[in-house]
Amino acid sequence: MKHRYSLEGYGYRLRPIKLADAAFVIQVRREDLERNRYIHPISEDVAEQETWLEHYFERDDDYYFIVENRVTSTPEGLIAFYNVENGWAEWGRWVIQKGSLAAAESVYLLYRIAFEQLGLKGLYCRTLAVNTPVVSFHTSIGEKTKGIIKNSAIIHGEAFDAVEQYADQEHFYREIAPLLEKQSQTIAHRNLKRELGEISFHHIGVATRGIEKELPLYTLMGYKKESIFFEDQTQGIRGLFLIAKNQPRLELLENLVGSHTLDEPLKRGQKLYHTAYYVQHIEKAVKVFSHSRAKIISPLKQSVYFGKRICFLMLPNMSLIELIEL
């Protein structure tokens, strides 16, 4: 069915499948001959798949998703739940691209959409008993096993038994969600490092009405000067870096005469102006953050202080970040 349910995770997101995804469906379902033994065959004809999707859009109680990588905004899998009855639904059509790390988070997000956005009571799945790796996955994340369903599916003319496994809301949030969330965070960091290389914290920018006036207050907290004062005419600011043991590096900032760069945060009483990170590949980093709906506030430019390119972006939560080229 056509629906608008979606959810952003740590490294992946689920979004509704579209007609334009027909070619990807064929690709991901046909790429692994070994896995194809356990799923219903599919034609290579994109037009046939588009027809199937058109019929799907007309059905009720069928929620089909693309599993999309947040770092690259590329699709890496499929997942769905359907046959909704008495607050329960079957989940399946789960196919993850070879080499993708999306398995754990795709399941985590699917359960959360079912419970948090549709208010379902539980989900169950039926996996061919001979597909032992997938059955083991369901067991390993903590799903309960209900039993064996004899002759549950006919694939390539052969009848197969299925193992039915399930979780209700209480069991999911108590036993399954903590495990999948932890795995999802680890995988998100791995994906980010694979795409960008190293990304490391450098400093917090602090907006001031006058650096000299506020500097003694930071001295009370153990800070001392790391740099001399510098001016950046392009950004319209004057700055000074401070360091302290076991505390984050700070960049105190003030407007240059005639500049209004810091007027808005100061008017709002927002002292912590931005957070800055070193990145190995700054163009890639800008693209990655843009895939997560960050907006470029100040495009790539040469930094007076660092002698390297920098860029400012606003995250969807209204946090301003600075990227600094290594």
Task: Please mark out the parts with pLDDT under 50 across 5 or more consecutive residues, or reply none.
Answer: none
Number of helices: 8
**Class by SSE composition:** alpha+beta
SSE run = EEHHEEEHEHEEHEHEEEEHEHEEE
User: Quick one: overall form?
Assistant: elongated
Strand content: 35-45%
Rounded mean pLDDT score:
95
- Report how far the terminal alpha carbons are from each other: 47 Å
Rg from alpha-carbon coordinates: 26 Å
The quaternary organization reads as: single chain
Percent helix range: 25-40%
Strand tally: 17
Q: What's the story with the biggest beta sheet?
A: 9 strands, mixed
Task: Explain what you see.
This protein has 326 residues and is α+β, with helices and mostly antiparallel strands. The protein contains eight helices and 17 strands. It has helices at 22-30, 46-58, 103-117, 132-140, 169-196, 211-220, 263-267, 282-291; strands at residues 7-8, 12-16, 62-69, 75-85, 88-96, 122-128, 144-155, 158-168, 199-207, 224-225, 230-232, 237-244, 247-255, 272-279, 295-302, 309-314, 320-325. Strands 9, 10, 11, 12, 13, 14, 15, 16 and 17 form a nine-stranded mixed beta sheet that branches. A hairpin with a 5-residue loop joins β3 and β4 (75-85). α1 (22-30) packs across α2 and α3 crosses α5. It is elongated. The model has no long low-confidence stretch (mean pLDDT 95).
